[in-house]
Amino acid sequence: MAGLLALPFTVQAGDAPVPEVPKAKEKATQEYGCVAPTDYMRKNHMSDLMHQRDDTLREGIRTSRFSLAECINCHVTPDEDGKFARFGEDEHFCSSCHNYAAVSVDCFSCHRDTPEQTDYQHTFNTGNNPHHGKIALKGNKLSVETLQVLTEGEQQ
Amino acid sequence: MANKTYNADLSRRHFFSKAVAAAGLAVAPGVFLRQVHARPSDQAATSEQRWGILIDTNKCAKGCDSCVTACMSENGWGDINNSEEKSNAHQKAQWIRKVTVKDKQTGHVQSLPLMCQHCENPPCVDVCPTGASMKRADGIVLVDKHICIGCRYCMMACPYKARSFVHEDLENQKVVAPRGKGTVESCTMCVHRVDKDGTPACVEACNADNHNAMYFGDLKDPNSEISRQLKEHGGEQLRADLGLNTGVRYQGL
Questions:
Q1: Apex CA B23: angle with CA B20 and CA B26, to 5°?
Q2: Whose CA, among A27, A56, B178, B252, lies 20 to 30 Å from B141?
């Protein structure tokens, strides 16, 4: 009994390092950065994706707001060598948190886990900002400076 | 996007009534009415359309497989991303195949592409135990891989051998065509293109090679190229005796 009671104290809450969730490539909306406020997305992204998947496949509704492809395009960013983290690795946006929370998803047994076009730009914010343009990702290789701006930029 | 004038012989009156319905779109000579019909991305497909493909086997060149390679690169199956390494040739996915048929009596040889026939009464949908095998309102038959359990009943039910099962883990799939281990898949009539008012990759490739053996369009629109072709020259269903009312039709068989 004493052993059982002692157990929770050997592994204290907070021992596991809090995941470093990679920053998104750019803002999707001006108000929240992402397509909805961060708190909302953390709590509800799964039901939004679930809803969207049925609408898209069964009815052909192809809006981009809660599309998985759009999540990946914006949130899965290349490292300094232009290499993308794969799902399962801690550097991948989805698995950084899912590994921590020990929640397995099977989205990526079928869906692509990296952006298909490396020079992808969100439809919003395609203006004159050079950091969001194709130049920044030319040759599929990011400079350290560019990467810093992209990852630590104005994203909330 | 096919550069066909789908409504070349549309009556003047009909043309203007459609143009008014388009409300605000710049309708100029040479504008394609199919673009006017484009469905907004937030609206569901309806049964006002039924998409179909017509294949003229007399124009289909023997030895040409551009429709097959176009499908591979569009949807990311086959040799394109070197997937399914452990599967043998019979196990590997095949969304569309070229078939050669020979009349034994006359020796006449014909070549044709064979894929999901997008039946109005699809046997694959009838047998599916989970509802994964489904037909969209506009007649496109799909597999909902979110709920497919990989039982492969649909593969046995299909008289056209149009469906494949993925036996191994895949990666680097195309964004437009998610596919993975343990699920059944088949031709989607390039539904991602159709939803954006486009043409299936196979049809586009056939036209690009100047074979023009394939027509894609709305079977319910009497003015579409496919409907006019069918009205003028007819089109056969494969295994019409099964009463499936296929969306893919063949001429010259």
A1: 90
A2: B252
Q: What ranges do the domains of chain B cover? A: 1-38, 49-251
Angle at alpha carbon of residue A66, lines to A63 and A67, rounded to 5°:
70
Helix (H) or strand (E) holding B248: strand B248-251
pLDDT digits (tens, 9 = 90+) for B8-23: 344 444 444 444 444 4
Distance separating alpha carbons of residues B228 and B54, to the nearest angstrom: 11
More confident residue, A5 or B157: B157
Write out the H or E segment, with its range, that includes residue B154: helix B153-157
B191 closest CB neighbour out of A60, A64, A113: A60
The encoded tokens of residue A83 equal: 């290499």
For residue A15, the distance in angstroms to the closest alpha carbon of chain B comes to 34
Assigned CATH class of B49-251: alpha beta
Structural domain boundaries of chain A?
Answer: 22-152
A112/B41 Cβ within 8 A: no
- The amino acid present at B109, given as its one-letter code, is V
Report the C-alpha gap between B34 and B50 in whole angstroms: 14
Return the SS3 of B142.
Answer: strand
Expressed in percent and rounded to 5, the helix, strand and coil fractions of chain B are 25, 15, 60
**Per-residue model confidence (pLDDT) at position B10:** 42
Distance CA B19, CA B4 (A): 18
* Helices B201-208, B66-75: inter-axial angle, 10-degree rounding: 140
Cα–Cα distance between B103 and A152 in angstroms, integer? 68
- pTM of the shown model: 0.77
CA distance B4 to chain A (A): 24
For B110-124, what is each residue's pLDDT tens digit?
999 999 999 999 999
pLDDT at A123: 54
